[in-house]
Design brief:
about 20% helix, flat, 7-stranded antiparallel sheet, 5-stranded antiparallel sheet, about 35% strand, single chain, alpha+beta
């Protein structure tokens, strides 16, 4: 039990005993009035001896951002901790000093916390929407880590980290995209202070004299404005650095952003060795093949040769297991493309020799040289991959943008939200 909570309990018990004694002595005629007044005064004083920290009125509410937040008794980081709170816990804000806020937990413990580690109502709603949307989106493969990796609430290094992926744990990869490395915009936690009313100055009894007329420009103003050095050329602006972020779905059901370079796709090494040094962005097990009592799979994967690109992959390959040679071989590969998620895995019906048959297949979104995107459907037909269908991807009617540009992201609750800002920066830098 917390020391402050135990103290409050002792005060409450002692106060009840004193009030009971006051009532008993007040009803007895053997006690003088002076003693009665004395006991009544003592009861009143003890009633006011409750912990003033718990009676303090809250000025705001916030939620814990990181996985675990240590609440300290004082502002100093060397101050002993008074409580610990977990991600999503609600805290009442009692006061503020610079970037630190005085908070009260649900158990009544009061202490100090860093305001940068707290989330506002709008940020918490966006995080809930992100988790709900990620649950409805397909996974593009499982990924693990070599060392603990923080999961952030937003695609920003300064955003709070609410979870840490441990070694041996896997997450579902939903999508990835490059994001400009800009300052993190923190949500509003405390209500904005009302502007102070400025007292209006009293008008002078007599108005000031009128301003004199401005002097006329010289007749040779254009000649004087010319310069022999020519127009001044402004130096080009420095490009904003980009970070490659991946949206992952955790086993807990939550979703968040991690730096892509720290993820490792969990495709078997005997297949991953053919990646040619490219990053595997998605992979899917296809058909099962039995070979000597062992189960093998055919595999489909997408790779990216250069990171921080506005597209999700520039190559895809279909691997098959050769039961005669007992090794993986490439049944189909296509390089130099601009592909976008999602990648869909499904069966494909085709007519072969006037007979309708069903084959395992997949569909990808490819942008061709004319700038138009097409949904191409492929089928694995008798040890070869063939193009079964090709359809034009129509743009969204409300925005005029292709809905597959940044798939896997929830709709922004407001037009000026953080997702809209990311899309705007993406169009600014990449023109898409």
């Amino acid at each position: 039990m917390d020391r402050g909570t135990a103290k409050i309990g002792l005060f409450s018990a002692f106060r009840r005993e004193v009030v009971t004694l006051v009532k008993e002595f007040s009803s007895s005629q053997m006690v003088p009035r002076v003693a009665t007044l004395f006991l009544v005064s003592a009861a009143v004083l003890l009633t006011g001896c409750s912990d003033s920290r718990n009676d303090q009125r809250a000025i705001g509410k916030a939620y814990v951002g990181p996985m675990e937040l240590i609440i300290r008794k004082e502002i100093s980081p060397k101050s002993p901790p008074s409580a610990k709170a977990k991600h999503g816990d609600t805290l009442e804000i009692l006061g503020r000093r610079r970037r630190f806020v005085k908070v009260r937990t649900g158990d009544g413990v009061v202490g100090w916390a860093d305001m940068y580690q707290l989330l506002g109502d709008e940020q918490m709603k966006q995080l809930d929407v992100l988790a709900e949307t990620a649950q409805q989106l397909p996974s593009h493969g499982k990924a693990g880590v070599y060392e603990p990796l923080n999961v952030h609430t937003e695609a920003n290094r300064q955003a709070p980290s609410f979870y840490r992926i441990r070694e041996g744990e896997t997450v579902d990869v939903i999508t990835h995209q490059p994001v400009p490395r800009v300052a993190f915009k923190r949500g509003q936690i405390l209500p904005r202070a009302e502007p102070k009313k400025v007292a209006r100055k009293k008008e002078a009894k007599y108005p000031p004299p009128p301003m004199p007329a401005a002097p006329k420009p010289p007749d040779n103003l254009l000649e004087l404005s010319k310069t022999t050095m020519g127009e001044e050329v402004k130096p080009p602006e420095k490009p904003v650095p980009l970070d490659d972020w991946t949206l992952v779905r955790l086993q807990t059901g939550r979703a968040g952003w991690v730096l892509t370079g720290n993820l490792r796709m969990n495709i078997p090494d005997e297949v991953a060795q053919y990646s040619e040094g490219n990053r595997i962005t998605s992979y899917f097990p296809m058909l099962e093949v039995q070979d000597g009592g062992q189960t093998r799979h055919h595999w489909l994967w997408t790779t990216l040769s250069k990171i921080k690109q506005p597209w999700h992959f520039d190559s895809f390959r279909y691997f098959i297991w050769n039961t005669r040679r007992h090794r993986y071989e490439t049944a189909y590969v296509e390089r130099g493309v601009r592909g976008y998620f999602p990648v869909e895995i499904h069966t494909v019906q085709m007519t072969v020799g006037k007979k309708a048959e069903t084959f395992p297949g997949f569909a990808l979104i490819i942008e061709e040289a004319d700038g138009q995107r097409y949904k191409k459907t492929y089928a694995y037909q008798y040890y070869r991959v063939v193009l079964a269908d090709k359809q034009k991807v129509e743009a969204s009617a409300d925005t005029g943008e292709d809905e597959t540009v940044v798939p896997g992201l929830p709709p922004a609750p407001k037009k000026d939200g953080w997702l809209a800002q990311i899309k705007g920066l993406k169009r600014k830098w990449f023109g898409k």
